[in-house]
Amino acid sequence: MKIQPMLCKRGDKNDLDKPNYIFEPKLDGTRAICYINKEIELINRRGINITKRYPEFNFRQNVNSSCILDGEIIVYGKDGMPNFNLLQKREQLEKEILIELRSKEIPATFVVFDILMKDGKNLINYPLKERKKILAQTIKEDKRIEIIPFTQDGKKLWKEITSKKGEGVVGKNLESKYSPNARVSDWIKIKFFKSVDCVLIGFTQEKRIISAFLLGLYDNGQLRYVGKVGTGFTEKFLQQIFKKMSKIIIPDSPVKNLKNINARWISPKLVGEIKYLEFTKDKILRAPVFLRMREDKKPKDCTFNQ
C-alpha cells in the first residue's frame, strides 16, 4: 500500500488560537513517507525511493511494529534548528562512497508527525488525536528518529519559533482524518514570510549565464506565467543549474500568457521556492526572491492554492 502525503492549506496568525487544534513546528526539510517492515523504505513527494541516500537511518529497532509513518527528513545545524542548506548536501547524491561519507559528516534525522498504518491496520480514518497516541506507543526516539513535539498553545509556539528564526507553525485539527494527496483546511501552515513553489519554465541571459528565472504556476491544469526572479542565487549555483537546464531546452514557451520576451525555454520539470511580497491583480509575483530548489516537489503541485 503506497500513500501520498496529506497537504496543508495556507493559514495566518489569526489561526493560532483555533479551538481543538494542535500546533507543531514547521520543519525545513524533505517530506517523506516511511514504510517499515523488515526493512525501511523512504518515498519522497515525487514518488522517488530515496532510502539509499540515508544509510544512517538504521532505526528499525526503534519501531516496535511494521507501520507506515509520515514525517520530515531534516539536518540540524549548530543552533539546534533544521538547516535546509545542510540537507541539500545530502540530496541528489548517487555515488555510494559520497553518500556514506556525508551520512557521517552531516547525519540526518527523520522527524515523525503521523502514523498511517500499524501491523496491517489502516489508521487514516482514525482521528488525529488517536493516531498521535498510537505513534507515541510505537516509536522509541533517538538521534536518527524523533516524534515532533506539539502543543495546543499556538501563540506561545509561534513566539518561540520566531525567536529561533524558524520557518513557521503547522496547525492540525485533533479530530481530522488523514486525507492522502489532499490539501484541506484541517491542516494549515502559518509561515513567517510568504513563499510559493514555482515551476521554472525558462531563463533570460541579459547580463550573465542566467540573469533571471521565468516562473510558472498551474491554474486549473494550465501552466501560467507568474513573473521572473533575478535575485537570491550565487554564481556557483547558476553554473550548476545552467548545466541541468541546458539538457531540457525546448523551442517554444510552455505557457500561453507570455509573449514578446527574449528567453530560453525549458521543459517544466524543475521546481524552485520563491519568497515574495504579494500577487498583483494580474497574478504576477511582486518583489520575488529565489530561495532554493525543491527537488522533492512535483511541478504539478505548484498551484496558486498550494
What would your notes on this structure say?
By secondary structure, the chain is of the alpha+beta class. The chain is built from 5 helices and 18 strands. The chain has 2 domains: 7-191, 2-Layer Sandwich (D-amino Acid Aminotransferase, Chain A, domain 1); 195-301, OB fold (Dihydrolipoamide Acetyltransferase, E2P) (Beta Barrel). Strands 3, 4, 5, 6, 7 and 8 form a 6-stranded mixed beta sheet that branches. Strands 11, 12, 13, 14, 15 and 18 form a 6-stranded antiparallel beta sheet that branches. The longest helix has 12 residues, at 235-246. It is globular and about 60 Å long.
From the coordinates shown, what is the CATH architecture of the largest domain?
2-Layer Sandwich
Name the overall outline: globular
Question: How confident is the prediction overall: mean pLDDT?
Answer: 94
Total helices: the number is 5
Chain-wise SSE layout:
Blueprint: E1 7-10, E2 21-25, E3 30-36, E4 40-44, E5 67-74, H1 84-88, H2 96-105, E6 109-118, E7 121-122, H3 128-138, E8 145-147, H4 154-163, E9 168-173, E10 183-191, E11 195-204, E12 212-219, E13 222-229, H5 235-246, E14 249-250, E15 264-275, E16 278-279, E17 285-286, E18 289-293
Kindly list the characteristics that best describe this protein:
single chain; 306 residues; alpha+beta; D-amino Acid Aminotransferase, Chain A, domain 1; OB fold (Dihydrolipoamide Acetyltransferase, E2P); 6-stranded mixed beta sheet; 6-stranded antiparallel beta sheet; 35% strand; globular
